[in-house]
Amino acid sequence: MLIVGGGAVGCVLSMELARRGIEYRCIDRMPGPGRESRAIALHARTIELMDLVDKDLSRQLLNRDLWCRGYVMHFHRDGERTEVRPGLDYTVVDSRYNCILSHNQSETEGFVRDYTSARFGGRIEYNATFQDLTQDGGGITARVTHADRGDEEELIRCQYLVAADGISSRVRRGLGLSVKGKDYTGSFFQNLDIHLNGFTDWRDHFHYCVGTDHFLMVAPLPGGHFRLLLSDRGEAADPNLTPQQAFMRLLERHYDGITMGDVVWHSRWETWVRLADTFREGNVLLAGDSAHVHSTTGGQGMNCCMQDAFNLGWKLALVLKGYARPELLDTYEAERRPVAEQVIWAASSLHDIFMTHGKDIAQRKQTMFEPGYTEKVVNYCSGVSYTYRDVIQKPAGLSDFDGPAIGDRAPDVDFEGGGTLFDRLRHQYFTLLAMPGGSNGASPGEALEKRFGPVVKAEILPSSEALSKRYGASDGRVFLVRPDGYIAFKAKAAEVGHLETYLNAWLKL
Ligand SMILES: Cc1cc2nc3c(=O)[nH]c(=O)nc-3n(C[C@H](O)[C@H](O)[C@H](O)COP(=O)(O)OP(=O)(O)OC[C@H]3O[C@@H](n4cnc5c(N)ncnc54)[C@H](O)[C@@H]3O)c2cc1C
């Protein structure tokens, strides 16, 4: 198993394989881990997924981060400033992590990388550049060069290869896989991570500052400095300006009394929309930016990429261990492509509101405050409303009942007697959750646990009001939760027999 690219996807996929005992190699052409802040927004679903791996991992992120409640919008029109607070409210997100965590991507990746290497010994191999590959009936041969060994060539033989090599993916281009998309006309951006003096409104929110001809974001970062992001247009794009001067011009439109301190990082880039026509070619799978890119507005990029890796990791592990049929891997694109399309919709929709320069502000504000719009966008960006409901086929003959649907994420619950539902899910594979109220207190999952041994763990949940609220009546009903925390199957106690047929369709045990 070879992962090309040790960025957001590479780090998470390595962890997902390593913790399931899969032998893999993850290579990256850089001489070492990236040190740049890049993605600074960590959203609810990504934190939930880290939490499902290990509480220590999510706790580490939470301890380090700035917990922001959402976005404040600042509008500037004909010299007049107005504010909407909160403009995008993340406290409404249905998760215990109802926030945006502000955190540098390099540190987020670092936590995952260090966790993987400390617990399982997995390491990313740097200075190793993927060149090309050939596929044959037996697998893949990848040609890699090692910059720290005089560009020595190595042929790596593997059964599967994941292209986690980012936006300009050499793997994707080498295979001749096409992408479709559109350009956000003239959308160039500049980032400036910098210390600010006199910016007092930093603790709880990201700030989006919008004028007819400009966009500026101000967000707090751990370490006491700020991320400024501007849409590189109009007066800000004057080539004679230093980055500080360009940013200062826009800051002064929205705030008084702020001065700039030390610069931490500056970068300039262009943004556009791209979606690969397929996420799979033979035994090569595309994940993250190699498969989809979009506007940075809403901060979903890294989150969506990491969630690709969470979706793919357990499937690859089951197939490589010989526990599941290879067809399981077809569900990766079937599930993640529609999510990528929704991510693109949310990012593009926000992009158009904030960066359709020249269009009247009042008109743009109006789109934003159409009924239900902000809730929809917030739930998309946070990742909690992405569901595989329309993709996972519900087995015939099962009755329908309340609680999360097949394909939805399994929401966490705090049991009144202590502990959480996520505590029961924290292991490598499927969990069969039996609601209380089954006959004689016996677990309907015991036989299945025996039958599908290493892959299914059964749990009888304690009686709990909070549980009934989320999962419905205490009548012995069962929910099969996938290793990535989504509901694979649910049935009434009397219908548990269907589950064996369902599992047999995917598993080879
Ligand atoms: C300035 C900026 C701000 C952003 N802000 C946000 C945000 O707030 N929230 C958010 O969610 N997202 C944000 N994003 C997007 C986010 O950073 C990306 O979506 C995410 O990093 C993509 O992850 P990835 O693993 O697919 O690719 P990458 O993280 O780009 O990793 C690809 C890796 O592959 C390696 N590689 C490339 N080619 C080869 C090769 N031939 N051989 C070996 N290795 C190779 C590269 O060195 C790199 O390490 C931002 C991006 C930028 C640039």
Descriptive notes:
- The chain is α+β, with helices and mostly antiparallel strands.
- It has 3 domains: about 1-65 and about 100-180 and about 275-380, FAD/NAD(P)-binding domain; about 185-270, D-Amino Acid Oxidase, Chain A, domain 2 (2-Layer Sandwich), CATH 3.30.9.10; about 420-505, 3-Layer(aba) Sandwich (Glutaredoxin), CATH 3.40.30.120.
- It contains 14 helices and 24 strands.
- The strands form 5 sheets. It has an 8-stranded mixed β-sheet with strand order 6-5-14-15-16-13-17-20, with helices on both faces. Strands 8-2-1-12-19-18 form a 6-stranded mixed β-sheet. Strands 22-21-23-24 form a 4-stranded mixed β-sheet.
- Helix 1 (about 10-20) runs parallel beside helix 7, helix 2 crosses helix 3 (about 55-65) and helix 8 (about 330-355) runs antiparallel to helix 9.
- The longest helix is centred in the C-terminal third of the chain and has 26 residues, at about 330-355.
- The relative contact order is 0.13.
- Flavin-adenine dinucleotide binds near residues 30 and 41.
- Flavin-adenine dinucleotide binds near residues 8, 40 and 129.
